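Re: beginner question about structure tokens

> Can someone show what the tokenized structure looks like for a real chain? I only ever see the sequence side.

Sure, here's an example I had lying around. Input first:
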Amino acid sequence: MSEKPYHHGSLEHALTEAAVAVVEEAGIGALSLRDIARTIGVSPSAAYRHFPSRDHLVAHVSQVAREDLARALILAREGVPTKGSRMRRSVRQFEAIGRAYVTFAIDHPTQFEAAFFACDVRPDRDDDPSAWAVLADAIDLMAQTGAVPKARRKDAPIIAWSGVHGLAKILTASIRPAGYTADDEIDVVIAGISRALA
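And the corresponding structure tokens:
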């Protein structure tokens, strides 16, 4: 195929949008840089200028998925009512973030898989926003308000992340104990994490 000039804005942006659409439809394993280039009507060589290999594209799409997850967490945190004490509100924000994490995985399973897909290529910038930072900030606020002992501040984020991530993986794999709904499991795990941090 002869190389065509790209007239529809940023080629990197167009490649990313097309790649995200493939991930949403078929999962990150279906990504092909040549196929993405063909989809948007450019040559593979034009696409390779932005993403030198498929792994570079995978790493980029993975980062986009993590940032989408982080935005979902921020939206949930900001949706918590302002009533009640500062301590109670910090706990509600933490719980809302945990629920949003699992709900994102259930609602967007292929994006969730992409967000944590193993890849040898590292992004050339930090996630912005960062899901880890959203969680860490929530725990900082709980430590400041006394909802979590300050001595637990260091290990609290990994305890919380492991709990919600493990549940998200279970629910997206459709592994569910009899008698529990997804909402039941989310409530039980969030409550258990809160007790573990107290």
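Each token stands for a local structural state, so reading them left to right follows the chain. The domain at 62-197 is CATH 1.10.357.10 (Tetracycline Repressor; domain 2).
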